[in-house]
Structures are given as C-alpha cells and as structure tokens.
Amino acid sequence: MKERVLTGIKPTGFSHLGNYFGAIKPAIELSQNEDLDCFYFIADHHALTTIKNKEELREYTYNIACTWLACGLDPEKVTFYKQSDICEIPELFWILCNCSAKGLMNRAHAYKAIVEKNLECGEDRDYGVNMGLYNYPILMAADILMFDAKRIPVGLDQTQHVEIARDIANCFNSRYEELFTIPESFVEKETSVLVGLDGRKMSKSYGNTIQLFTEEKVLQKTINKIVTDSRMPGEPKDTDNTICKLYKLFVSEEKYNAFANKLCAGLSWGEAKKELFEVMNNFITPMREKYFYFQSHREEVDKILSRGAEKAKKLAAAKLSQIKTAIGM
Ligand code: ADP
Ligand code: TRP
Predict the structure, then answer these.
(1) Is the CB of residue 45 below 6 angstroms from any atom belonging to ligand 2?
(2) What does the pLDDT look like over 141-181, one tens digit per residue?
(3) Atom 1 (ligand 1) nearest CA
(4) pLDDT at 155
(5) Confidence of residue 233 (pLDDT cuts 50, 70, 90)
(6) 8 C-beta closer than 6 A to ligand 2
(7) What is the CATH number of domain 213-292?
(8) For 96-104, which contacts have Cβ atoms below 8 Å and span 24 or more sequence positions?
(9) How much distance in Å is there from the Cα of 80 to the middle of ligand 2?
(10) Is the CB of 301 under 6 A from ligand 2?
(11) In the chain, where are the structural domains located?
(12) What's the CATH code, domain 3-194+298-327?
C-alpha cells in the first residue's frame, strides 16, 4: 500500500495566505508524488464549533472547496471529500472517545487558552465552551485514523492534535488489536507560521489575514493596512518586517535580495507595499481565475466532492467494520 497523506481545513472563514503556504501548497506538492496516496477534505463538522449560521457554513464550504481546486488539487489523483459525507467518522469518533483520557483534552491548546482567559476574567473556567470544542481533537483523530494516514501536512498550531491522535491510536492498538497506523505531522519549516497584517500569526481569529482570493482592489487595500514603523522615505530600513517576510514567499532569492537592498537604501514603505502587491498579485492571478470559475460552476464542485466521498466512504465502511469486530461488536 502506498503511504497515505491526509489533511483537512475547516470552513470557518475565507481562505488566506497562511492557509495557502502553511497547509495547501505543501499538500498539493505532496499530491504530485506518485508514491503517495492523498486524502484531502473539508472539515465541516469541525467548523460547527465556531460557525452557527447555515448560510455562512455553506459559503465557507464552497470557498474552501474552490480554493483547493484553484490551487491545483487534481481530483483524479487526490481523494477529495467533505467530512460530513462520511458518516462512519462520527461513529469512529465515539469509539475513540473511550480511548481518550479526559486529562489529555484538558491540555489541548485551544481549550486551555479559553480556560485561561475565562479564569483571568473571573468567569467560570468552562464559560462558553461546548462539547464540540472540547472533543475536537478526538474527532480529528477519527479523521486521521479512519484512513490509516501516515503523513499529516499541517501548520505548527495543529501538531499537538496529531500528537493526540497518536496517543489515541496507541491506546486502541494496545488494548485491542494493531489496527491503526501511527500518524506523524508534516510541517513546512519555512512557512510554519506566516505573519499577518499586524505582525502576529496570520489567523482568522485575529482578523489580520490577507485573503487568498479577493478582487485586486481589495488585495491592494489590504496590503496597505500592513503595519510598519514610522521611518520616513529615504531613511534606511531593516528587513525584519512583515513586508519582507511576505515578499520573500513570492520571489526568487535573487529578487528578494534586490528588494531588501532597496529597503536598506531607503525605499519608502508605500513603494515597498506597491512592489509587494505586484508580486503577490502576479502569483495569485492565475489561481484567482480558476477560483472564480469553480465558484460559478458549483455543480462541478459538488460532483467532484461526491465522487471523492464515494471512494472515501467505501474505505471507511470497511475499516469501521474491522474496528467493530476488534472491539467485540
Ligand atoms: P485560522 O487560524 O485562520 O483559523 P485554520 O485553523 O483554519 O486557520 O487553519 C487551516 C490550516 O492552515 C491549518 O493546517 C493551519 O495550521 C494552517 N495555517 C493557518 N494559519 C497559518 C499561518 N499563519 N501560518 C501557517 N499555517 C497556517
Ligand atoms: N483541525 C484542523 C485545523 O483547524 C482541521 C482538521 C480537521 C484536520 N481534521 C483534520 C487537519 C485531520 C489534519 C488532519 O486546521
């Protein structure tokens, strides 16, 4: 059997450059390797922890689906599906709940961060926490273990979840039978944490993202919002800033060095932002066209996803039946 690669993105907002460089691009590159068997999906069950509106969930789901396709996912090579189309996953989730220590969930970053914030504000520790959020890592383990995925391309923030999936798999394997492959996260070092407009990690939750597919004018306006220091045109600037970090992603080393030299020689922030827009826009334009094509041909997207679901479901049903036999059902 070929080594299996699996990753998911939750439809909780519009895809941004952090998603692209941290998760989508490395995953697409892996899918071009003939020795790997890739499973990429839209984690819509996971999105329920934050999205409570029907229309939003639908729009974000199409956004993520069209994004993957625009960025080069080839549905002939990759099994591409929606998590909610595979009803075996929540069933496995329940079984795995019984291999998951509650203490392990208490230590999961997302939950811990909310508890810490609640305690700081003098609230009850679990204020605003629902069981979807609390159990999130176990559902993610079900996504991964169901398909015997070995390599999980994710951004740095998700590596703890992959560790939890390993713990759960080990617990099951030693209690019943060696049925699960032990997964490993695959993190692209250079782009594991991409910075956003304000210099912090780019994230929907910080509202500092640069959306991957917006109209050119909106992209330009967004780039103008990048926070810089107050050095004036003509004053030399160093390269430890968001503009340089982003610029580097889109050009060769040679072109980057030329840009950095101009900044050190006093290029204004305004000019630097214009140059950043140019390189970013050139890079994004061909993908943006594909993105809008798929957005206006949603029936094609539906077909692609249902073909992927059909394939994934067959495997999931067979695996679940093995699992149920192993536990005595
Ligand atoms: P967000 O933080 O904006 O809500 P998600 O949690 O939906 O993003 O992340 C989807 C994928 O993109 C994950 O694999 C995550 O690690 C990756 N990712 C998100 N933001 C970044 C970033 N700033 N740098 C690198 N990877 C990122
Ligand atoms: N939790 C991931 C995120 O927030 C999304 C996800 C769900 C995922 N299931 C997964 C990623 C399985 C990798 C493997 O981005």
Answers:
(1) no
(2) 999 999 999 999 988 889 999 999 999 999 999 999 999 99
(3) 203
(4) 81
(5) very high
(6) yes
(7) 1.10.240.10
(8) 96/138, 96/141, 96/142, 96/145, 96/168, 96/172, 97/135, 97/138, 99/168, 99/171, 99/172, 99/175, 100/137, 100/138, 100/141, 100/164, 100/167, 100/168, 100/171, 104/137, 104/164, 104/167
(9) 14
(10) no
(11) 3-194+298-327, 213-292
(12) 3.40.50.620
Bridge partners (DSSP) listed for residue 186: 153
User: Does residue 8 have its Cβ closer than 6 Å to ligand 1?
Assistant: no
- Residue 60 has which token pair? 């974000």
DSSP reduced 3-state for 30? helix
> Which whole number is the average pLDDT over 15-23?
91
* β-pair partners for 9: 42
Give the ligand with the smallest distance to the CA of 198.
1
pLDDT in tens, 275-327: 999 999 999 999 999 999 999 999 999 999 999 999 999 999 999 999 999 99
Q: What is the distance in A from the centroid of ligand 1 to the CA of 326?
A: 36
* DSSP state for residue 186 in the 8-state scheme: E
Inter-CA distances, 240 with 187, 244, 247, 310, Å: 23, 7, 12, 48
Residue 234 has pLDDT above 80, yes or no: yes
Distance from the CA of 43 to the center of ligand 2, in angstroms?
Answer: 7
**What is the Å distance from ligand 1's center to 16 Cα?**
8
- Contact residues for 156 (Cβ-Cβ < 8 A; gap 6+): 22, 187, 192, 193
Mean per-residue pLDDT over the chain, rounded: 96
- What is the mean predicted confidence (pLDDT) over 4-16? 96
